[in-house]
Specification:
The protein has about 475 residues and is α/β, with parallel strands linked by helices. The protein is built from 22 helices and 6 strands. It has helices at about 20-25, 40, 45-65, 75-90, 100-115, 145-155, 195, 200-215, 220-225, 235-240, 245-260, 265-285, 310-315, 320-335, 340-350, 355-365, 375-385, 400-405, 410-415, 425-430, 435-445, 455-470, and strands at about 5-10, 30-35, 70-75, 90-95, 120-125, 170. Strands 1, 2, 3, 4, 5 and 6 form a 6-stranded parallel sheet that branches. Helix 1 (about 20-25) links the parallel strand 1 and strand 2 (about 30-35). The structure holds flavin-adenine dinucleotide (FAD). Flavin-adenine dinucleotide (FAD) binds near residues 240, 339 and 380.
Length: about 475
């Protein structure tokens, strides 16, 4: 009889979970454990909602599919693991690897301590197609530009067979917290609509994947840019929490690819978006300061103005720029924002309001259900222009032109900014751009623009030129 512990972290699934699979293959008794470790990985407010429901779903799957009880504990992971090891004579600890700097440090310390005690520690890759240290250029260095990185990484992708647990392990009855005591659900009624949009957990993830492949994969490459169409996979939060394996996505794409009518360009484009996720994890691993330090040091001299009133207008979706306000309100209501609109609002915050990208990133980490330190930090640095392989500094999104191009009929704007519902399509993107704008603003309960984009653009270019001279 051998007893092992499987410590769940960002791998909240039973299927295709290498740590769980290996532990069940090698040991008769298993204790599945989740630790709420607020010191090293406190969830933001939106993610706390997700985590609550995802753990509920995982508890149910454990009970119904494997007859095991998922043990929930809150506190210092090392202390909790040691307590359980001692109480139940556990000989091995299994987990899937995490890649955020604090988690890497924490895991290294725990591993060293356990191994010193003679406990076997085994860790696996459950979240990435390629782990950050495996992809190198011809000189053995790591890549700093996405395209060559992805060319190398893409060549390694082949779907692997599913790992299915064949023998049911025996559970170990340890004391578990009641998830309600963790108070992860918001006390304000702010997240009340989230469950209309999301079903956290493995089943919800699988449903989203099937729905995407059946309904949106074809023409993804074109449609993905139009926020009104909902034509992307909406898998980001499921991937963050590890409710779906990357391998299961690769396997699910195979039948679609083999269909002679398949839109292969869209399949490739979808894979390359997963590639951006991989690249962001790669960057965070090689540059652990990515969440708070400009990758390009010349940006340290950027004269951020950080006006609090402007920041609040942006957060509340009250900037007077319809596409910006639609995005920020979508975020508040659903915990999600379409990628195109994320780029527009991030550009507006940094290059229009001159608010430090780190303040925008912080707001996103608190309000997104898919908040992810790697993806969020890399994306904000990319838009601000200070990141690795970033958008060139002179690329400043014009919120009105972007709105006209990607939401031509104003459908997305009307969905999230109902005050503008009655405006004609040609007015909805910029209600001030007409001779009788006074009359319009007296009829709608909506703010006038808080800044002039054209003036801000000139100012931003001036700041960037100054940086280049230094
Ligand atoms: C300022 C800013 C902040 C962002 N913050 C986050 C974040 O905190 N968490 C997050 O997961 N994504 C973030 N993104 C990336 C992107 O917006 C989301 O991943 C995407 O909108 C999720 O929707 P989807 O699952 O339908 O994407 P799909 O288009 O279906 O893409 C499939 C998957 O690829 C990955 N992906 C897609 N685009 C990107 C990208 N640009 N960078 C990294 N991975 C990508 C995601 O895991 C996504 O689920 C951010 C983008 C910007 C511009």
């Amino acid at each position: 009889m051998s007893k092992a512990m499987v410590w769940f972290r960002q791998d909240l699934r039973l299927s295709d979970n290498p740590a769980l699979f290996e532990a069940c293959s090698q040991h008769s008794h298993i204790i599945p454990l989740y630790i709420l470790d607020v010191k090293n990985s406190a969830p933001g407010s939106a993610q706390a909602w997700w985590l609550h429901h995802s753990l509920n779903a995982l508890q149910k799957s454990f009970a119904t599919k494997l007859g095991l009880k998922l043990i929930l504990r809150q506190g210092n992971p090392l202390e909790i693991i040691l307590e359980l090891i001692n109480s139940f004579s556990i000989k091995a600890v299994y987990w899937n690897r995490c890649y955020e700097p604090r988690m890497i440090e924490r895991d290294k310390k725990i591993k060293a301590r356990l191994e010193k005690m003679g406990i076997e520690v085994r860790s696996f890759n459950a979240s990435l197609l390629n782990e950050p240290w495996t992809i190198r250029n011809k000189n053995g260095d790591f890549f700093k530009v996405f395209t060559p990185y992805w060319k190398t990484a893409r060549a390694t992708l082949f779907p692997q067979p599913m790992q299915e647990i064949r023998t049911r392990p025996i559970g170990i009855e340890a004391v578990s917290d009641n998830i309600l005591d963790w108070k992860l659900l918001p006390t304000l009624n702010w997240a009340c609509q989230f469950s209309h949009f999301w079903t956290p957990g493995e089943e919800g993830a699988q449903q989203k994947l099937t729905e995407f492949i059946d309904q949106h994969l074809e023409h993804y490459k074109i449609n993905r840019d139009f926020p009104e169409k909902n034509a992307t996979s909406r898998l980001s939060a499921h991937l963050h929490f590890g409710e779906l394996s990357l391998q299961s996505i690769l396997r699910a794409l195979e039948p679609a690819k083999n269909n002679p009518l398949c839109d292969l360009a869209s399949v490739e484009h979808f894979l390359s978006e997963l590639g951006w996720r991989e690249f962001s994890y790669y960057l965070l691993y090689h540059f652990p300061t990515l969440p708070y330090k400009n990758f390009r040091e010349d940006f340290d001299a950027f004269p951020w103005q950080n006006d609090e009133a402007l920041l609040i207008s942006w957060q509340k979706g009250m900037t007077g720029y319809p596409i910006i306000d639609a995005g920020m309100r979508e975020l508040w209501a659903t915990g999600y924002m379409h990628n195109r609109v994320r780029m527009i609002v991030a550009s507006f915050l940094t290059k229009g309001l001159f608010i430090d990208w780190r303040l925008g990133a912080e707001w996103f980490l608190d309000t997104l259900v898919d908040a992810d330190l790697a993806n969020n930090s890399a994306s904000w640095q990319w838009v601000a222009g200070c990141g690795v392989d970033a958008a060139p500094y002179f690329r400043i999104f014009n919120p009105v032109l972007q709105s006209k191009k990607f939401d031509p009929k104003g459908i997305y704007i009307r969905r999230w900014v109902p005050e503008l519902h009655a405006l004609e399509n040609d007015l909805i993107h910029a209600p001030w751009e007409t001779d009788n704008s006074r009359a319009i603003y007296t009829k709608i309960n909506y703010p006038e623009p808080i800044i002039q984009h054209s003036e801000a653009r000139i100012q931003a270019l001036h700041y960037y030129h100054q940086l280049k001279k230094k």
